[in-house]
Amino acid sequence: MPELQHAALGAPDAAVAGSAAPRAAVTLLAAARLVLQRDLTLAFRRRAQLVQPLAFFVIVTMLFPLAISPELARLREVAAGVLWVAALLASLLALEFLFRDDAHDGTLEQYVLSGQPLTALMFAKTAAHWLLTGLPLAVMAPLAALSLGAPPAALPGIVVSLVIGTIALSLIGSIGAALTLGIRRSGVLLALLTLPLSLPVLIFGARASELAILGDPIVAPLELLGALAVLGITLAPLASAAAVRISLE
Amino acid sequence: MSDPCLQAENLHLWRGERHVLRGVSFALSRGVCLHVAGANGAGKTSLLRTACGLLPAESGRLSWDGRDVQEDLAGFQGALIYIGHEPPLKADLSALENLRYWIGMRRRVSPAALASALQRVSAAAWSERPARTLSAGQKRRVALAALSLALVPLWLLDEPTTNLDGEGQQLVGALIEEQLARGGMVLAATHQELPLAPARVRRLELRLA
Fold first, then answer.
1. Phi and psi (nearest 5°) for B185?
2. In what order do the strands lie in the sheet with B59-64?
3. DSSP helix, strand, coil percent of chain A (3-state; round to 5)
4. What pLDDT digit, counting tens, does each position of B26-45 carry?
């Protein structure tokens, strides 16, 4: 009888061991792509959330000419600053949604338990967030910049600086969003945590845009922005993965 | 009897000032279901969350196949599926999409396998509906479909029969039987009796702190 029992358990053993093979077939890249695809699908089912930061950015940059003066020469002086402050606040506005819904419905828990490295999944989530908020901001920027009196020749420089800068902002923001997951009304705390870390991005980004408007070379501040983005890419997913794990405890 | 696969020795867990798990030990071998029972607040959910590595225990040892789970946490977690009080479904995705993204992270699943798993839990008729329009019992059925698709040796189930009708509860029993017959393991926390033949069920009673 013991032998029989052993045989009965032996076969399923193999079946369970065999089940490890198809699981290994999901590569890290495939899993990250699923996360990205899922977030993009969800965002397009919930367009209001998608439009909100973008509308904020457009409204703020459109209000400045009304409030300061319609004179393009005067607007041009503040254009870079206005664009970047509006972009920073708009990306902050969108950050609250980065992990909140996933934390509520248990998706984050399943990400942690998926057996895939959480760091890579966090990177994919942040990438989706940037595609949905940062990239549209950079695409809208020429319109806003023109209405603030920037010369057309400056537009490529402004767009490039915003593309790189919003990557850094999304990554820095992901740390703050993950750290404030356990808190009920996290908006203010999230801003307090994220804004100081975002200041270098604001400074170099605004400088790059200003130089572009003046027609000067913008390589130096762009390189610094790029360095910040690379720093974010290497460190932010690690930090947000750690913060998400803690929030689930 | 084969060697225990999942083994917990003297787990202690504190939640703030509360000492939730006071030296819990259990051993789970292949083909066995462990029924975790206990009053409300006795720490059933905490035990399940500790057993899957979401909650780190303050002291004690949790080992999988004889090795401490902390050595290869991702490998251990890839070998288990945990379903909590609320099935982890996205309200804006359909039942089918939810399953595809959830299980797709763990293993490749064909659309046919997804469809047959949904058929098995009688979900075929509403598998295209967004999860927010589903009843609690229907969501629970989607989670049951995920169980049968995941093909992992260890299932951790928190109140697997809540919100289910009589037929759904029988289905939980049948799925657990299949998992045990495959040589899998089940750790289920529930107040009710599991719809299973008692021979394969061990009981772990948690006392209120």
1. -130, 150
2. B18-29, B4-15, B59-64, B67-68
3. 85, 0, 15
4. 999 999 999 999 888 889 99
Alpha helices in B95-165 (DSSP H): 95-104, 111-120, 136-150
Structural domain of A173:
28-248
Does the interface ipTM go beyond 0.90? yes
In a domain, A103, yes or no: yes
In a domain, A42, yes or no: yes
The answer to whether B175 and B155 have CB atoms below 8 angstroms apart is: no
Q: Which SS3 state, helix, strand or coil, does residue B60 take?
A: strand
On whether residue A106 sits in a domain, the answer given is yes
What's this model's pTM, rounded to 2 decimal places? 0.89
For the cut 50, the answer to whether the pLDDT of residue B78 exceeds it is yes
Tens digits of per-residue pLDDT, B132-184? 999 999 999 999 999 989 999 999 999 999 999 999 999 999 999 999 999 99
- Nearest CA to A244 out of A117, A91, A93 is that of A117
Flag whether pLDDT at B100 surpasses 50: yes
pLDDT tens-digit readout, B87-99: 999 999 999 999 9
CA distance A130 to chain B (A): 21
A204-207, Cβ contacts within 8 angstroms, sequence gap of 24 or more = A204/A165, A204/A228, A205/A84, A205/A87, A205/A161, A205/A162, A205/A164, A205/A165, A206/A80, A206/A81, A206/A83, A206/A84, A207/A80
- Identify the band that residue A222 occupies on the pLDDT scale cut at 50, 70 and 90: very high
Is A193 inside any structural domain? Answer: yes
Helix axes of A219-248 and A97-104: crossing angle, nearest 10 degrees: 20
Token pair 């989607």 is found at: B142
CA closest to A35 among chain B residues: B101
Give the pLDDT mean for A30-49: 93
Best residue in B107, B154, B156, B187 for a mutation probing chain A (most A CBs within 10 Å): B107
* Residue A10 pLDDT exceeds 50: no
Domain count, chain A: 1
Residues 50-109 of B with CB under 8 A from A: 52-56, 74-75, 77-82, 84, 86-93, 97, 101-102, 104-108
Q: What is the 3-state secondary structure (H, E, C) of A140-199?
A: HHHHHHHHCCCCHHHHHHHHHHHHHHHHHHHHHHHHHHHHCCCCCCCHHHHHHHHHHHHH
Nearest-angstrom CA–CA distance, A139 and B35? 56
